[in-house]
Give the backbone structure.
Amino acid sequence: MDFFDAVQTRRSTRIYEPRLVENDKLRQILDTINAAPSAGNLQAYDVVVVKDDQLKDALAAAAWDQICIARAPVVLVFCSVPKRSAERFQRRSADLFCIQDAAIAASYGQLAATALGLSSVWVGSFDAQEAKKVIDAPAYADPVSIMPIGYPAETPPPSPRRPLDDLVYEEKIHTQRQNIA
């Protein structure tokens, strides 16, 4: 699938067919995640692949019963690793860069899944400490997002988007807006 088609056709899907994601497709998604840019190329994140039904159920419970997690054939949990980049970038990295790295990696994963005919949803609403226990994450890793992936059993309509003139500002306009406030 063309990159722009993947961007335009990606949907947040919460209902999946009961078929497994092929290992080669999962590997392609993980390779794409690994290719994502990161601050200082330090890749201050880890990705946990969850296929076990009991662990998926526990993750769903940690996400306030978001059943799409339990019913997806594979779930990726993206964890920021502040210490991996803090050694180079200090405080800002520990507070921000590692989270940005994990978010960029997750975005690449979503687009790769779409390009392969799969679907996903970004789950950000969950008890991070409980999710951390479920995946047995080390103390230095913090879950940022949970991403169920599978073959879509639904095709949600596109979500409305803001018009570009409400979203994008040229430098002069943005400066004027700041002065008005």
